[in-house]
Known about the structure:
The chain is 35% helix and 13% strand. The chain is of the alpha+beta class. It has one domain (19-91). It has a two-stranded parallel ribbon with strand order 1-2. It is globular and about 40 Å long.
Amino acid sequence: MFGCAAPFDFIERAQTLVLSDIVDDIACPVLVCDADDDAFFKGQAAALAKALGPRVTYKLFTNEDSASAHYHVGASDLLNSTVLGWIEETLSVR
């Protein structure tokens, strides 16, 4: 998908991928899920949410949720419930 021959190539390529150049073009509602203890992208989800302004619903998962790790490992039920609930509410799916 990214045209990389090796995992290291992907890591280098990923460093160039940013949303800051297009965030103002995003017009639809966006759910941004963050992990309090994200070891890989600490602060990036919050920065994106701030840049999106009123278009965003921001959800910070914490240790109390048992979902504070990157990808909310160990809390798939909570993550799925949050995402699907947001979709249902945002799209008024009934």
